[in-house]
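Figure-free illustration: sequence to structure, shown twice.
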Amino acid sequence: MITIKAINRLGKWMYKIYMGIGIFAVAFLATCVISSVIMRYFFGLSYAALEEFMTTLFAFTTFWGIGICIIEDEHIVIDSFYDFFPPLIKKWVTFFNYLIVLFVDWIIIKYGLSYTLQYGKHLSMGMRIPTYWMYGIIPLGASIAFVCIIIKLIRIARAPLSDYEKKIVLK
């Protein structure tokens, strides 16, 4: 029998792997950019494959990071009007907002997958690999974000109303 404690441990383990991949990708991207700049400005060398790889890695970090931003609540919120609502309304508004995000993410998955399958057989100019490896980042990242949004919706539904009371921020 699977317990809540086991599910929580599995969730924490998956989160650490997810964050680790994201952190590694950003660090690797930074290393590639620094190396490319040094090679270009000090040695006059430029490699099309490296430039294309960095663009692909940048797309990966962007779409991989969507799910991280959802889980960590790292998004822009203009809450001056939102703070006037009672906790129950805040909870429903938050839930509804994430339903909209889920719908938009579903559209990204649907059309990203369609685009990847339609145009992914061509070879890229720099790396000379099928472009579905590059375009596939979009539906992959959006699918992971979809799971993160579902988790967020479950958390919102289970959260007590006290989580939505006005919080005083001291600066």
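We now fold a second protein in the same way, so the two outputs can be compared directly.
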Amino acid sequence: MSGNVPASTRTLRVLTFLATQPGPVPMERIASAVGLPRSSTYHLLRAMIDEGFVVHLPEEKRYGLGVAAFEIGSAYLRHDPLERLARPLLVQLVHEVGQTAHLGVLHGRELVYLLKEQPPRPVTLVTDVGVRLPATLTASGRALLAELPPAQVRALFPSAESFVRRTDHGPQSLSQLRRILADEKRQGFAVEDSFITPGMASVASAAVDHAGHPVAAISVTFRTDTVPPADRPHLAHKIRQAAKALTRRLHG
């Protein structure tokens, strides 16, 4: 049993090092950071790739965090602390805008809803606590994907088969998704209009942790005829304020 401890320690050091980097890095930098020979680092990275904790970019000869590492971080934050930190912000947001608000997190290629706060007279929605929807089709999912390194987005959506369509809307390729994410990252919020349910729209913004990694998204969902396009920038501003407040509570 004790013989496994050094290997476990090295694995954790690799994960910790990669988590502090702005993007994928060459193997030589990883070996230097964890104090391992090149050959040992290679074998350790191969094992971590097989388990999904590291992704290899062969064209760039670099390594970055894999989906499994991101999911573990998200799983930790999905528990009570995150929900208790976010709920008062959602309650206040609903009071201000009069629409249904959600808290969602990424789980692989899906968006999972953790919280839902409603106004006194809510509309019926498919977005309920525990519901999973394709991340590329939801405003919350894309707000979170826009904050991920490009390599992680590519690892999540490696082929056309990775994309799902519920209506006639939504990206169907990695290049389409990247263009949408770039636009939404620049404006600071994501918008979904009839991607999930015809006649329903959502606006979302992401909260990040101290390392700048996306933790959760706050969104507001509404009937398209109740919020004219001219009023949506004001709605987006309120949602961004709530997401920034959650970022501060997460020490982001």
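Summary for the second example: Residues 1-5 have pLDDT under 50 and may be disordered.
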